[in-house]
Structures are given as structure tokens and as C-alpha cells.
Design brief:
The protein contains three helices and seven strands. Among the domains are: 34-124, no CATH class; 138-173, no CATH class. It has 183 residues and is an alpha+beta fold. The strands form two sheets. A five-stranded mixed beta sheet has the order 1-2-3-4-5, covered by helices on one side. It has a two-stranded antiparallel ribbon with strand order 6-7. The model has no long low-confidence stretch (mean pLDDT 84).
Length: 183
């Protein structure tokens, strides 16, 4: 009886596939893919002796109703991160990517795979009344944590993230050369 020798890389791939480590994202009833909340989305605003207050800047695909999900797909990445994992009694503010809504909630239960939120308060915020500045070559865009200047021709982002709209407008104007002696 001879034993088949398998290369370590092949064995690892085979074991990995058996575990189902790359599941496809679940879909809701409308067929929309459910996004994941990872450690990069959570910022601890205040960590006290008894309570922690966190802000989750939601990925663009997340809708307010998704925050009611408790499954591993949505919360697993966050819960496996030691410094960012949520625990019972944490208070959260979950903000939509485009700032169109906010959810205030309290973590009622959490483990290494899932999170259960309670005390939901969904707050709808009005949309912008004034469009962001743009000209024939550049436009300002919101990127979730601030504003950036985008070149229209190729979609290239040409500035760093700027915290206010006013600073982004100045940066857009700085994309054009200034004649000598006019500053």
C-alpha cells in the first residue's frame, strides 16, 4: 500500500476548500448582497470604565435595515478583531456612507461571530440642498470620511481627504496654475 504524496500548497488549498473559508455573501429578499462591517469601519469615540461609545462609518452598500442582522457574515470580521470587537452594553452610532441616515443602538449581546443590537433609533437626515462644487475639469466628491477632488476626465482622485467642504473647494481651485506675481 502506497501513500499518495501531496504538495503542501495543494493540501492547504484542499483543506481550505473543505472549510468553506470563502463563502459567497448572502443576499436579502431583493437579491442585494449584504455588506460586511469590518474593524476599519469602527472608531471608538469614548472608552470609559463601564461603557464604550463607538461610531461605525458604514460601507456604501449598507442600508439601515441591515443593522438588524445578527449573522456572522455581517459582523464576523469586526468581532474577530481584539481591540474592535463589540461587547454587551456598548453604545453605537452607525452612520450611512452618504450621511442620509444614522442608527443609534445598544449592543445587547455579542460573541466572536455575531452581534445583537437593541434600542434602535433610526434618524433620517435631509439630503444636501446645495450641490458640491464642480467645474469642467474637476468635481468635489464625498468619500465617507471627508471630501476629495476628482478629475472628471479619468475619475482620478487628485487630493487627500479633506474634512470640510470649504477646504475641498480651495483644493479644487489649487488644481489650476496661478500666474506668477498674483499671490
Amino acid at each position: 500500500m502506497t501513500k499518495k504524496i501531496v504538495a503542501p500548497a495543494e493540501q492547504f488549498k484542499s483543506d481550505w476548500d473543505k472549510l468553506g473559508a470563502t463563502p459567497s455573501p448572502p443576499s436579502d429578499s431583493a437579491g442585494r448582497k449584504i455588506p460586511q462591517i469590518g474593524p476599519q469601519h469602527l472608531i471608538w469615540d469614548l472608552i470609559g470604565i463601564e461603557l464604550r461609545h463607538g461610531v461605525i462609518n458604514a460601507p456604501p452598500e449598507l442600508i439601515a435595515d441591515d443593522t438588524k442582522r445578527t449573522d456572522e457574515w455581517m459582523w464576523g470580521k469586526l468581532q474577530r478583531h481584539p481591540q474592535k470587537a463589540l461587547r454587551a452594553e456598548d453604545q453605537l452610532l452607525i452612520r450611512a456612507f452618504d450621511r442620509s441616515w444614522r442608527v443609534r443602538a445598544i449592543v445587547s449581546a455579542a460573541d466572536v461571530r455575531s452581534v445583537v443590537l437593541a434600542g434602535f433609533q433610526v434618524i433620517s437626515t435631509p439630503q444636501r440642498q446645495k450641490p458640491l462644487l464642480e467645474d469642467e475639469n474637476y468635481r468635489l466628491i464625498w468619500v465617507g470620511n471627508g471630501f476629495r477632488v476628482q478629475r472628471k476626465r479619468d475619475g482620478q482622485l487628485v487630493s487627500q481627504v479633506l474634512p470640510t467642504e470649504r477646504l475641498a473647494e480651495i483644493e479644487l481651485r489649487n488644481q489650476y496654475p496661478t500666474p506668477l506675481g498674483t499671490r
